[in-house]
Structures are given as structure tokens and as C-alpha cells.
Design goal:
Rossmann fold, 7-stranded parallel sheet, alpha/beta, 7-stranded mixed sheet, 13 helices, 14 strands, 2 domains
Length: 411
């Protein structure tokens, strides 16, 4: 069978790494894998197509800024992509993130309905069933259940419709486009998102939970025995407990403010390391907190990221909106306990012997949990054992089983 995966990028994000890992699993099984990627960099080791280009990307972004039409630009590159699909003839189309300013989603789904190609759609956020946003927890909004309207956050959250609230029309167009597909299976990485889908206009489709996977060879503990509280940096021969936070973009919903508060409240034998800040944030954090916060820009090296997890006393995920963060799995795989807010499915990977899940937004509880976890109450081996449940070949092998089930039913 030939499986075509579609996503904004390959490797360059947590979803991109998932798609790349699944590509390898498909190929290793003796089946054919293809990728359709929204924007550069395209990697020549993969077979597939680069759908978009810089000019089209900027035009689509402008269309969204001024008209609030995320997902409704990129007509010409989408038509070229659909013509390419006619040549490739995939047996199954596996969609990941189809937002990201590279597809006209109505054209894509019209094509799918006419060709009657089976679809697996992994939802990594909530964009598919809202009139605008990818997440709505922070805004405490549930308009998506009945029909989005009068969105006060359209200019403040991704995909940033700066000058027009177009949520009513976008919700209606998405519903019309995404519903009525003859053979579509939705996959969610978390139980939480499955429950959300079942309350949305996508509830007509079967939903299966397949958690994200983690590369246990790349993300692994240091060789040899490690101290539970000794996975730290050494500073002037004094032990410094390192609190680690990682994000692709440190925006409000990722909880940057809580790390800043911790920098002020934690004892002097603690330091905070943040990976993924932009240049402006790095300058501001270094100026304000000095050595209390070690601010680093986003790294493209998974090996460097793994080393940061290993050196941390605890990984903290203070996210206020999320699905099933892969960062939690990566930390556990490196033998590092996790403290997270009970946001979306963020706590689903954490057990009572591998970390602490606290009420979303409760800073005092977060601070207490961080100091407890950094004190060495969790065993590295237990964290690693928990991560083995999410080993990437095991988890992504479930997709192979799903593909086979779908094609078997089609015969």
C-alpha cells in the first residue's frame, strides 16, 4: 500500500518529527511512503512533493490577516498538489496539520470526496472544528460546540486574523468541507482531544486514540547510574538544580510568565533553562534575570535537546493550552520527571511515580510540585520505563494496523 502523509513541515516541529518517524515505519514495513510538505526546507531523503513556496505563503498569510481566511488561500499550489496526487494514486491519505498557510482546504476535501480515497486525519490541535483558533482553553470559549461567532481573540491567537473577525464564515465553510467524507477516520494523540471531537461537528467520524511516540535511542538517560536529584549543572562546585522548559514558540499560552515567577521565588540553588525563546525574549530575560534564567533560542539538534533533558532535575510544562505534548515523553525517556499543569492531555503521560500534575494555572501548586520533584523523590528508571510505553515503533505501528483495517474494509 502507498500512504501519503500531509503536514506543514517535515522534522522542523514535533508534528514534523512524528511524520518523519512514521514515514520510516511505513517504509520499513515494506509499504510505500510519500510526503506532501507545506514549506521548506524540503529534505531530499524523502519521496514526495513540496506543496507551497514563499510567495504563496506570504499571500496566504496576508489573506488571513486582512480577511480572516486561514486555510482558504493557496489555490494554485493546491491544484498543482492535487494533480500530483492523481499521478501518485495513494491508497490512503494521512492528514496531519492542514493549516499553516499552504492549502486551500475546500479544494482538498472536494478532491477527496470525488476520488473516494480513504483518509486518516490525525488532529494535533483543535483548528479543524473551530471558526478560527487552534486552542480555546485559555479563552474559556465553547462557541465551537454550536457555531463560532463574535470572536474577541481572532487578532490575538494563531492564526492571527489581525484586521477581521471572520469566524462565522470560516466555521461554516470548514463544516461544509470537512463533513460528509465517505471514508475518514480521525486519530487523536490524547483522550482529552477525542472527547472534544465528539462534541464538535466532526462527531460523525470514528475516533481512535494513538499517542505520540518517542525515539528511545535518541532520548535516553546518561550511561551509568545517575543521582535522582543530581541531574544538574555544577556551578562553582555547588549543586545547582536545573528546571527545564521547552517550547517551539514561547507565547502566553506556553506559560512563560510562570517560569519568570519561579526565577524570583525559587531558592538560589535553582536555575531555570528555557529552550525555544526568540532573540527579543532572550535579551529581555537575560537582562532581567541574569544567570537565574538561562535563555536559549530554538535548537534544530535533537541531540542537544536530549542533553538538556538529561541535565535537568525536572522538566516543567506550564502550558495553558495543549493536546499531548511530545516534550513530556522526551523528558521521561531521558529519565527526568515531569511537572505539568492539567491542561488538555498534557497530564496523560505522567503517572504518580514519574511526576506531578497540578491544577491548570495554580502557580503555588506548581511551585511546590517543582521543588518536590527536583528534590529527588522520583526514580529515573521509573520515568524511563513509563516512556517505553510510547516507543515510536510501537505507537506508529498502530497506524499500520489502522491502514490495513481501512483497506481491508474497502475490499
Amino acid at each position: 500500500m502507498k500512504i501519503l502523509q500531509v503536514n506543514t513541515v517535515v522534522r522542523g516541529s514535533s508534528v514534523g518529527r512524528i511524520m518523519a518517524d512514521l514515514y520510516q515505519v511505513i517504509e520499513a514495513s515494506g509499504n510505500e511512503a510519500r510526503l506532501a510538505v507545506g514549506r521548506e526546507p524540503w529534505l531530499e531523503e524523502y519521496k514526495g512533493i513540496l506543496v507551497g513556496n514563499k510567495k504563496d505563503f506570504y499571500l496566504h498569510v496576508m489573506k488571513n490577516f486582512f480577511q480572516g481566511e486561514s486555510g482558504f488561500g493557496s489555490e494554485e499550489v493546491t491544484k498543482r498538489f492535487l494533480a500530483w496526487m492523481d499521478q501518485e494514486k495513494p491508497d490512503i491519505i494521512h492528514l496531519h496539520n492542514i493549516h499553516g498557510f499552504y492549502l486551500q482546504v475546500e479544494l482538498l476535501f472536494e478532491y477527496i470526496k470525488k476520488r473516494k480515497i480513504p483518509v486518516v486525519w490525525t488532529l494535533h490541535d483543535c483548528w479543524s472544528f473551530t471558526g478560527h483558533c487552534a486552542y480555546y482553553d485559555f479563552a474559556a470559549c465553547d462557541k465551537w460546540k454550536t457555531g463560532c461567532n463574535t470572536c474577541v481573540h481572532h487578532a490575538k491567537v494563531y492564526p492571527y486574523a489581525l484586521f477581521k473577525d471572520n469566524t462565522i464564515a470560516s466555521y461554516s465553510r470548514k463544516r461544509k468541507a470537512f463533513c460528509g467524507v465517505e471514508d475518514l477516520t480521525i486519530v487523536t494523540p490524547s483522550i482529552w482531544l477525542k472527547e472534544q471531537v465528539k462534541q464538535s461537528f466532526l462527531k460523525e467520524y470514528p475516533v481512535r486514540v494513538i499517542p505520540n511516540g518517542v525515539d528511545l535511542e535518541l532520548f535516553c538517560p546518561k550511561s551509568g547510574e545517575r543521582e535522582n536529584a543530581g541531574k544538574n549543572l555544577t556551578d562553582n562546585e555547588n549543586r545547582i538544580k536545573t528546571i527545564l522548559g521547552v517550547a517551539n514558540i514561547w507565547e502566553l499560552r506556553k506559560g512563560l510568565v510562570y517560569f519568570e515567577k519561579m526565577a524570583e521565588d525559587l531558592p538560589k540553588d535553582y536555575k531555570i533553562q528555557l529552550i525555544g525563546v526568540n532573540k527579543k525574549q532572550k535579551k529581555e530575560l537575560n537582562k532581567k534575570y541574569g544567570g537565574r534564567i538561562i535563555a536559549m533560542e530554538r535548537t534544530s539538534s535533537p541531540e542537544e535537546l536530549a542533553e538538556a533533558y538529561r541535565n535537568a532535575a525536572v522538566f516543567v510544562n506550564a502550558t495553558l493550552e495543549d493536546n499531548f505534548p511530545t516534550t513530556n515523553l522526551e523528558a521521561l525517556a531521558c529519565g527526568t520527571p515531569v511537572v505539568t499543569y492539567a491542561t488538555g492531555g498534557s497530564g496523560e503521560a505522567v503517572t504518580e511515580d514519574t511526576g506531578i500534575v497540578v491544577q491548570r494555572g495554580n502557580y503555588d501548586a506548581l511551585l511546590e510540585a517543582v521543588t518536590r520533584a527536583a528534590g529527588g523523590i522520583f526514580d529515573s528508571n521509573a520515568c524511563r520505563k513509563r516512556a517505553e510505553h510510547f516507543e515510536k515503533n510501537k505507537r506508529y505501528g498502530e497506524y499500520l494496523e489502522l491502514y490495513q483495517e481501512i483497506l481491508k474494509e474497502k475490499l
